[in-house]
């Protein structure tokens, strides 16, 4: 940009072989560079939640013989598309984290269609555990107050622990599903093992996600009209955070070892082009800046 200095003077360029920046700085750099894609991804994800929003409107604003049937139908539709929608988002987020060019719509459609059955299964498991956690939260304290026994909180603690383990597994389930050809059982097994190997990363993702949710909730409490930001950013940011933090773990323990063992070329790594096949050589960062001498007086073109 020529805001603070002349754009006519050629600089040294960008060194393609420059060392990678620290993860913290690379996180924000890639976030800024892909902000438009994240906005678009969040909007698409929000639009795919129209059925659940419509079910709330039907339930609260209508009162006839079709109210409950239509409400349950819309909830069922939302349940069917939720898992595949997450898979579509995961495929796009993986490409963003890999920092490679891609066609947004193609990647999302592939993630949605190719992982429909798997996404439905994983979301069913998530939904089952979420329902169990909600039921436990409602039932166990009531039972404890009625019986006066604190032992009832033992199964409640077990339920919470299972939910926490599944949360950590979800940080890996979706990236493994869209990045590998593993079967569903192997995906779940690897997700469980990877979550145990990367507790620090799981804590970072959990705290970062909780912080974003807290910010959105705080803005909503300040002004109900700010709820519109849900359609543009929070979900995509959380997905990007999770993919950025955890996909390197997937590469380290799953993807890279596979290609090293098979002897195949890893498509996620940059391929070195032989010198004789190169059309040109990128010398960014090594060229000397060229200062353009500006002509004085009027120039007639």
What would your notes on this structure say?
With 301 residues, the protein is mainly alpha-helical. It has one domain (23-263). Helix content is 68%, strand content 0%. The chain has helices at 23-33, 35-47, 50-61, 67-98, 104-114, 116-147, 153-179, 184-197, 199-222, 234-262. Helix 4 packs across helix 10 and helix 7 packs across helix 8 (184-197). The longest helix has 32 residues, at 67-98. The protein is globular and about 80 Å long. It starts with 22 loop residues before the first helix and ends in a 39-residue tail after the last helix. Mean pLDDT is 85; it is low at 1-7.
List the helices and strands and how they pair.
Elements: H1 23-33, H2 35-47, H3 50-61, H4 67-98, H5 104-114, H6 116-147, H7 153-179, H8 184-197, H9 199-222, H10 234-262
* Count of discrete domains: 1
Main beta sheet strand tally, sense and closure: none
Q: Ends: how far apart?
A: 25 Å
Instruction: Give unreliable regions as ranges.
Output: 1-7
Helix content: 55-70%
- Which outline best applies? globular
Total of DSSP H or I helical runs spanning 4+ residues = 10
Q: Tell me the structural class.
A: mainly alpha
Rounded Rg: 25 Å
Mean pLDDT: 85
Order of helices and strands: HHHHHHHHHH
Beta-strand proportion: under 5%
| Number of DSSP-assigned strands | 0
